[in-house]
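Example S7 (structure tokens).
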């Protein structure tokens, strides 16, 4: 069952993803407590958790603000994703069967559907995707590292979705290419698709965002 802090984290995260809280905007605790109808103590804990996710920044004498978006961070996130997620596919491949691939395909259908344009839904399903991928591999630390990085990545995904009105950036392959590569048993090809997908988003961010 979700705690009050979980609920506040989700509400603030949603507002950041949807642009209701803009990059650089001060997060004044009294105003936020009134906005979300909560007391200061769980609100502070929620902001601390969002700081770990890279959505909130703290400054001495200024307090918390919505984290600014940076081109260099997007590139770093993509590089980390390429490394960690490629490792996950390599580890999972010996356990891969049609049932597992079908489960991943079902999640892919959700990610590629109109609902996937909602950043919070997208992040939740992508977290589940990698949990399913590694479900037979007993690698909880790797899964946690992937999911932590995905929380940072989703912020940029949400911004791209807003700018493009839901259109995939040019040269970004569908995630269905992953499924085809898995069925072919070709992790190398899957990694190429993954790197192209991440690179397309980074290129779009570098062309359209300001540091």
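Recovered sequence:
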């Amino acid at each position: 069952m979700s705690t009050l802090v979980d609920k506040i984290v989700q509400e603030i995260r949603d507002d950041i993803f949807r642009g209701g809280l803009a990059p650089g905007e001060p997060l004044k605790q009294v105003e936020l407590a009134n906005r979300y109808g909560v007391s200061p103590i769980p609100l502070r804990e929620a902001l601390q958790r969002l700081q770990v996710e890279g959505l909130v920044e703290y400054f001495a004498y200024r307090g918390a603000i919505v984290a600014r978006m940076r081109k260099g961070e997007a590139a770093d996130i993509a590089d980390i994703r390429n490394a960690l997620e490629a490792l996950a596919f390599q580890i999972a491949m010996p356990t891969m069967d049609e049932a597992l691939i079908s489960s991943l395909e079902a999640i892919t259908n959700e990610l590629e559907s109109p609902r996937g344009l909602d950043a919070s839904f997208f992040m939740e399903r992508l977290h589940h995707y990698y949990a399913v991928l590694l479900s037979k591999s007993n690698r909880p630390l790797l899964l946690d590292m992937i999911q932590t990085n995905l929380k940072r990545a989703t912020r940029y995904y949400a911004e791209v979705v807003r700018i493009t009105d839901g259109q995939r950036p040019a040269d970004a392959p569908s995630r269905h290419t992953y499924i085809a590569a898995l069925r072919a048993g070709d992790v190398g090809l899957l990694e190429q698709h993954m790197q192209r997908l991440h690179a397309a988003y980074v290129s779009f961010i570098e062309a359209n965002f300001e540091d």
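Notes on this example. The chain has nine helices and two strands.
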